[in-house]
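FORM 12-B: Structure-to-Sequence Request
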């Protein structure tokens, strides 16, 4: 699980940095049809950002307040789920990102 805290130790949204109510977001949405309730698939974001993301698949960098190391862990998780995600992805940028991952 990836949750971000501010300097006071309060949880903040990994996307926008606000300190509102933080929810558990599925990095790879349940709608992808794979088992995605693994601990490495949760990111803490506010309700507004969670509604904005919906069932979309986003790049790890979308969570702009996550430290680089945690973004890298999400990238590895995305690589792990790559074939499932490519079947469900609707975003050209994410598709391109995943196809380039194969070449690494």
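FORM 12-B RESPONSE
SEQUENCE OUT:
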């Amino acid at each position: 699980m990836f949750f971000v805290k501010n300097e006071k130790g309060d949880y903040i949204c990994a996307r926008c940095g606000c300190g509102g109510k933080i929810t558990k977001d599925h990095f790879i949405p349940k709608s992808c049809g794979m088992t995605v309730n693994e601990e490495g698939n949760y990111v803490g974001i506010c309700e507004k950002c969670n509604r904005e993301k919906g069932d979309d698949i986003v790049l790890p960098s979308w969570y702009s307040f996550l430290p680089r190391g945690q973004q890298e862990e999400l990238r590895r998780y995305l690589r792990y789920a790559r074939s499932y995600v490519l079947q469900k992805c609707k975003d050209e940028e994410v598709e391109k990102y995943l196809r380039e991952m194969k070449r690494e």
